[in-house]
Amino acid sequence: MVASVVLQRITLSGYYQIIPGSARAVGPLVSVSGMPSKTGAANIYLVDVYVTPLTAWRWLTAPLHRPNETFQMSDYLAPGVPDSEFATQGYLDMESSKRSAAIAALRAMGWHLTVTAVGANIYAVLGNSLAWRAGLRVADRIVSVDGIAVHTTCDLIRYTHPLAPHHEVHLGVETAHVSSAGRITYGATHAVALRTSALGNWAGPADCPGTPIAARSSLGLEVTDAISAPLPATISVSTDNIGGPSAGLAMTLALIDHLSATTITGHAHVAVTGTIDQWGRVGEVGGVAEKTAAAIAAGATDFIVPASQVDEATPVAGSRLHVWGVSTVADALADLKKISGVPIRPLTQPNSRPLNS
Question: Does 60 score more than 90 pLDDT?
Fold first, then answer.
């Protein structure tokens, strides 16, 4: 007994475990103002997992716990990125996911939307790099370089790659402020002087049109496009203390349900996981086995997962949960119609041309 207590207090440095989390109704988290909507169904669930340090006891007794997934933080962070940035990456993923979910939901309902890139969000910074010492952190947004507007990550890469190493550039940066609950807001643009580094592993996307073949330097940052689109309504999703992109599809379907005169799940209780992009494409997520267990515990009857991960969910689901694999929002809506027999009926007629900015 004493030995087990001691082992439960010893953690294995750098190792973490994923255990089943909770399932929560997404409908009550979504709010829409500025266009007709109904109260969303309370039976579309997002499912999450808990990530905790791996103890010696849990490692020794792993065969007794199913599902049971462990990982090293280095599996998720690029080499040299401090562990402290992991949580902020998750919150940035969630903010991006909410934006994409709103766009994908409206497009699925027939709306024509024009999406524009509005800067390069920092997704990773090498610890103790020049960028780190200059105060740049995950979620900060770069909007200019040497007075030239940066709309996309490729704008930044095309400008910096031809520069000689140790060349000083001046970035226009909107500093991200991350609340204790994970909400991200931005301050006014300010200047950050930074010298380029010899080109390392972080060369940026190879498919940026016009990127010099013989790139010479980089900023030591991993960046992603920040996007924006004029929407016909104000849409918000309350996701305090929830990080990561895996609720993207669940939020998309919950928003569609809000904007439909029908309850698209009928009487079924449907758990959902999968990332989403602005075009309605569904991507893979982590911890699918653990999320399946959480869905079962919540009383879900059906579980929608990325098509490529059905095999991860099925062994856990057994006969207790019907697993559906999807690749797009359209796939998910088709499966929901099979489950409920209820089609979407938009409360508002979609526009015929893109909205003005």
Answer: no
- Domain residue spans in the chain? 2-114+229-340, 116-228
The stretch 254-258 carries a mean pLDDT of 95
Would you say the C-alpha torsion 288, 291, 292, 295 has a positive or negative sign?
negative
Separation of CA 196 from chain center: 29
pTM (two decimals): 0.86
The CATH class for the domain spanning 2-114+229-340 reads alpha beta
pLDDT higher than threshold 70 for residue 84: yes
Look-up: residue for tokens 């929002």?
A: 329
Evaluate if residue 254 carries a pLDDT over 60: yes
Q: Where are the alpha helices (DSSP H) in the chain?
A: 2-9, 56-60, 86-108, 130-133, 153-160, 248-258, 288-297, 310-317, 329-340
Is the distance from CB of 330 to CB of 284 less than 8 angstroms?
A: no
**How far apart are the C-alpha atoms of 312 and 25, rounded to whole Å?**
23
| Average predicted confidence (pLDDT) for the chain | 85
Give dist(CA 108, CA 278) in Å, integer.
10
Closest CA to 241 of 73, 70, 27, 94: 94
**DSSP annotation string for 223-281:** EEEEEE---SSEEEE--TT--SSTTHHHHHHHHHHHTBSS-TTTT--EEE--EE-TT-B
Q: Are 36 and 233 in contact (CB under 8 A)?
A: no
Q: Which CATH superfamily is domain 116-228 in?
A: PDZ domain (2.30.42.10)
Residue 58 has pLDDT above 60, yes or no: no
pLDDT (tens digit per residue) in 120-137: 999 998 887 889 999 999
Q: What confidence tier does 22 reach under pLDDT thresholds 50, 70, 90?
A: confident
Q: What is the pLDDT of residue 162?
A: 85
d(CA 354, CA 351): 7
Is the CB of residue 187 less than 8 Å from the CB of residue 177? Answer: yes
With H, G, I as helix, E, B as strand and everything else as coil, classify residue 340: helix
Q: 250, 283, 255: which is closest to 269 by C-alpha? A: 250
